[in-house]
Every structure is written in structure tokens, then in C-alpha cells.
Design brief:
Length: 312
């Protein structure tokens, strides 16, 4: 019976077979279970089943075992606190990531922000995945870090677990933002910072009295540069972006107008993920302050043309 295999599987089998001939079966077996590096930087999956589509997107990057090794500690950062439609990551996407991490052999999963039970109850899988949800751990411990290459945010208080976990997975939603025009992967890292550090994103080192006379988004350049700077601390090993149902006005909190691109985006590069995702807001990523600041830090592609991309 004919068996169809793709080029990647063909090459893998040839390597395994050759290794068996040269060095015996023990080496062949070790190579058979080796994980190949992703051949794409980004994969997007269109569909109306967020749980399954998130899995497909990650599988296209090589599968979760590319990122999570058995016994790993995984930190996940979910945009979960808000209540209006299109303002929070679809919990189906988050649960798909959790399921894949556990299947890959993760020892422990930590949420890098405090995710409420109300958030999980929005998913139809909250009951069937109750054991997995209850196994999640959260610590509010923060560590002060110096950011040597930062242009503005020279130090920050950030989740201690973000610094110590073996694997960092960011699970944001792409949506409108009153100040920066969008929020997605890079801005979501603010969710792992202390309140005092987040205040400095908006107001710099201005005194509390001065901030009383300034709007929350009165200094977009400070906010954008601080977002780019905080991602110098640690960028995600994997980003899984929810673009199923999103706010296109009155973000980040809503309520506002809703658009339903019905897409999940998985990427190994946070800048590529943001540059791709902002298209759903009708924005050109290369003109946005956050992306411009990230480009100056050399985070990744200069444009989407440089991204190895797969659309399913």
C-alpha cells in the first residue's frame, strides 16, 4: 500500500536509516526520536475551532515537543483579565496550549499572571480539563532586573517565574489599543510586570503628582519604547496569538466593535507575530511605534517578506 510522506519526514527517515547502517541501532533510535528545528517562523490557521486550530498551528512549527522537553517547567502568559468580547484570549486557545504542553511531558505549568476561574469557565472544556486547570500554579513573586540594552526602561520588576522557567509561551490576543494602536505579543509581557513597573511604562519616571495631570496614554513613545525594552529581558520561545474574535475599536478593554478573523497564529518570533497580526486591525506594522522600537532592538524580521510563513 502506498504511503504519502512529506519532504521533512522523508529526510528524517533517511537520516535514521543511514545512522543505523553506520553506527548501529542505538544511535538510529536516538535520532528517530530527535526533534527537528521548525522550518517556518510563523503559521496561521483559519477556522472556527480554536482549540483544534491552535493545535494545528503549533504542529506546523514542529509540534509542542519542539519547544517543551520532558520534565520542563513552562511559564504561560495569557491575556485573561478583561470581560468584554474580543478583549481577552479565547480560553480554548489557552487550553490547547496547556494540553499540548502536558502531552509533551511538561513537569509543571505556571501562569505568569493571575488567571481567574471565571476565565476558564468561559470554555466548554472547563469541566473536561478541570484536572489540567487545577494543576496550574501561580506565584506573584517579582524580581528586580537590570536591562542593559534598554533605551529607556533600564530596570523592571518582573515575574520571577518568567526568569526561571525552562520554556516561556506567550498567549495574547490581537486587538485595538487606545495608546499604541494595537496590543499583541510584545505588549502582553506587561502582564508579567509589577504595578509600579507598569506605571513607568505610561509615565516614565515622572512623580506621582505630575502624573495626576497627564493622561494614561499621553506619552505613547515612552510606552512603546518601554514595551520594546521589557522584551529584552526574555522573549517567548513560542507565541500563540488569538485572532478569532477581536476588538477593533475602544481597546484594550472594550466594549467596542468586533471583528471575527477566525485565525490562530503561532510563531517562534514575537516581532513577526505582531507584524502579521496587526493586519487584522487594518494597520501597517512597520509604521507602528512598538514595532519600530522592536526593530531598532533587532528582534527579528525587518518586514513580513523576511518571515518564513505557512498559511493553512
Amino acid at each position: 500500500m502506498d504511503e504519502h510522506i512529506d519532504r521533512r519526514e522523508f529526510v528524517k527517515r533517511c537520516v535514521v536509516a543511514g545512522a543505523g547502517l553506520v553506527a548501529g541501532t542505538s544511535l538510529a533510535k536516538s535520532l528517530e526520536h530527535a526533534v527537528l528545528p521548525p522550518k517556518y517562523d510563523l503559521c496561521s490557521v483559519a477556522g472556527d475551532r480554536p482549540f483544534e486550530d491552535a493545535r494545528r498551528a503549533v504542529e506546523a512549527l514542529g509540534g509542542m515537543r519542539t519547544f517543551v522537553k520532558p520534565g520542563s517547567t513552562v511559564g504561560i502568559l495569557i491575556n485573561s483579565p478583561l470581560d468584554h468580547r474580543g478583549a481577552y484570549t479565547n480560553p480554548e486557545v489557552s487550553l490547547a496550549v496547556i494540553a499540548m504542553c502536558l502531552e509533551a511531558g511538561a513537569k509543571q505549568l505556571y501562569t505568569l499572571n493571575n488567571v481567574s476561574q471565571r476565565y476558564w469557565r468561559r470554555s466548554k472544556r472547563s469541566d473536561s480539563m478541570r484536572t489540567a486547570i487545577e494543576s496550574l500554579r501561580y506565584s506573584d513573586a517579582k524580581t528586580e532586573v537590570a536591562i542593559d540594552r534598554a533605551k529607556l526602561l533600564k530596570n523592571a520588576e518582573i515575574s520571577s517565574m518568567l526568569l526561571s522557567c525552562d520554556v516561556f509561551i506567550n498567549i495574547p490576543i490581537i486587538k485595538d489599543h487606545e495608546g499604541t494602536k494595537f496590543t499583541c505579543t510584545m505588549k502582553n509581557v506587561m502582564g508579567a510586570c509589577s504595578g509600579s513597573t507598569c506605571r513607568r511604562f505610561h509615565f516614565g519616571d515622572a512623580s506621582p503628582v505630575t502624573t495626576l495631570f497627564k493622561g494614561y496614554y499621553s506619552d505613547v513613545e515612552t510606552l512603546a519604547q518601554s514595551i520594546a525594552d521589557i522584551n529584552l529581558v526574555r522573549r517567548p520561545d513560542l507565541s500563540v496569538v488569538d485572532a478569532t474574535e477581536i476588538l477593533v475599536t475602544n481597546g484594550p478593554s472594550g466594549p467596542g466593535d468586533i471583528r471575527a478573523p477566525r485565525e490562530i497564529i503561532a510563531s517562534t518570533n514575537c516581532l513577526a507575530a505582531d507584524m502579521y497580526a496587526v493586519r487584522h486591525l487594518g494597520l501597517n506594522g512597520e509604521t507602528l511605534p512598538v514595532i519600530r522600537c522592536a526593530l531598532q532592538h533587532g528582534y527579528g524580521p525587518k518586514s513580513l517578506k523576511d518571515v518564513r510563513m505557512l498559511n493553512l
